[in-house]
Here is the input.
Amino acid sequence: MLDTSFWAGRRVLLTGHTGFKGSWLSLWLLKLGAEVWGYSLAPEGQRSLFEELALARGKLHHQLGDIRDLQSLQEAVRQAQPEVVLHLAAQPLVRRSYRDPLGTWATNVQGCLHLFEALTSLQHHCVVVMVTTDKVYANREWVYGYREEDRLGGHDPYSASKAAAELAISSWRDSFCGSCLHQTPFLAIATARSGNVIGGGDWAEDRVVPDAMRALAAGKPIPVRSPEATRPWQHVLEPIGGYLLLAEKLAAVGSSDKYLFSSAFNFGPLIEANRSVSELIGLILQTWPGCWNDLSDPSAPHEAGRLHLQIDKAHHLLNWRPRWDFATAVARTVHWYRSVYEGVSPLQCCLSDLEAYQLDPTHGF
Here is the structure.
């Protein structure tokens, strides 16, 4: 799926590298032979996949920093001199966005613009993949999936800030990418909107899979807030593989195709993986027996009830499609956590999943 020769020795700046997806992406890039500069806040919580993989003690150039700090970000860009930028740094939690709306908006919108401002110093070609979310669409609770051309919007601060980031990115690209005196000819920018990712190593608060794994390991019922909410569930390797492929395409296209790829792309699962939270929990319990409690609260902050993505564009323009079905993604995820709780190293579990994903494109488990 990926061109390994493209990534060997490629200078990559990865923001948000200490997060869940960032840790997986750091590991994959290092396996591909890339030179990776990471820029991110310190890992949160009692457990962190980044720390469990010991990535800071390897070949990764690890720098702690806040994307709201323009001067620090400019220095990181100056040191890395990236040929590829993968921007994952964000405040990614819906419920936290209600507690800290200003911080969420500053990180998710202003942080993007800080990155672009820092990249204007580059004097060589660089492709930039800005990761947003499937929640950027004005949610109408449709039974069918959203396409990249559908209207943007957002009810909660997290979703709205990510939709605003898409608008800011588009505006910056239209205004400052080009050959005019006030523009730079060196940047090609795309955005990536992925579905709800699952996979080993997510220890975040208020996410259904980490909550489920912690509860099952402790022999307690799984707390479930929104059992009927429907999401496009996919293993974490699916979208991050899409980000890498999109970066390759951006770097390869000529000027005539530039605007075709310098645009938004959905990376979601096949339609059969659009399942309710209760269906996800039911499948988890088939692999790791236990029980769950319905903690639905009508007074809780609003979250979208139904969310699907259409992925035709990524399929036709990037030749990308999901490799693992819903059952495989869930089985791989549960197996990762059970193995780690039983004493297997997280690195060994991640490498096993990564090898299976690359070598077996249909089943993988």
Q: What stands out?
A: The chain has a mean pLDDT of 93. Residues 234 and 281 are 14 Å apart (CA to CA). The first strand starts at residue 11 and ends at 15.
